[in-house]
Write a structure and sequence with these properties.
Strand order of the largest sheet: 1-2-3-4
Order of helices and strands: HEHEEEH
CATH topology: Surface presentation of antigens (SPOA)
Number of strands: 4
Shape: extended
CATH class: Mainly Beta
Helix content: 10-25%
Distance between the termini: 12 Å
Structural class: alpha+beta
CATH architecture: Roll
Strand content: 25-35%
Length: 91
């Protein structure tokens, strides 16, 4: 929800790219070229660790993956600069 009156209202319809980062891995080029069907790449993130939510490449929140109606979704658990308890209290 945008807050700040008319200043933010003008920006409300601007498109931004929202992305969720599942994890990262550093690989040598030869290992990338060797990838194929059924290849497994282990990521640095743990299974129960929240995912990074980014807008235009900037971290804005942490989230958990949910499944609803056969589709993936996300539940925000922490906003950047705010604790999980602060997010829950605001809900």
């Amino acid at each position: 929800m945008l807050d700040g009156g008319d200043n933010f209202a003008l920006l409300g319809d601007v498109d931004v790219r929202l992305s969720v980062e599942l994890g990262r891995a550093n690989l040598k080029l030869k290992d990338v070229l060797a990838l194929g069907e059924d290849s497994v790449v282990m990521l640095e993130r743990l299974v129960d660790e929240p995912l990074d939510v980014m807008v235009n490449g900037k971290l804005i929140a942490k989230a958990e993956i949910i499944s609803e109606g056969g589709r993936f979704g996300m539940k925000i658990v922490e906003l950047a600069g705010r604790s999980k308890a602060q997010v829950e209290a605001a809900a």
